[in-house]
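Appendix B, example 12.
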Amino acid sequence: MPLIIQIAIISIYSGIAYLFVEPLNNWLLFVLGLIMGFLFLFFDKKIAYKYYQNNGLVTRSVIFLFTYIPLSLFVITSSGSPLGVGMMISMGFTYVIELWQVKSSSELFAHKFLWQTGKAWSEKEIKIFTRVFIVIVFLLALLALT
């Protein structure tokens, strides 16, 4: 089910971006970036995970999520690359979906996102973090269309 949701979100966002991203070749690069961001995290979870020497996915740690935000802001505002912008936005959408799936289970959230820190968060902290992260990704997605 999440795979269908991710594809639907990327497709809808691509359609919206078509109205804002010009010229057409920039839109095509943007869409390619959206696909690349999705595939990067998909293959990281399905293939590269087998070769990691630790307990979890590096790209699914809360530490990585905290670095994702300023990195995305930099790529969107300073890179001038529709490919890079699309990739960062797609990664953000993927994180939002994954955070939403585990937000009500502090044990699952800790296993998936807090494995590097060794600290448990309360359900309230998880919900706050998830909501704030969703708002930030939404704002980044809007900024990417300007």
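The two ends are 31 Å apart (CA to CA). The chain has a mean pLDDT of 90.
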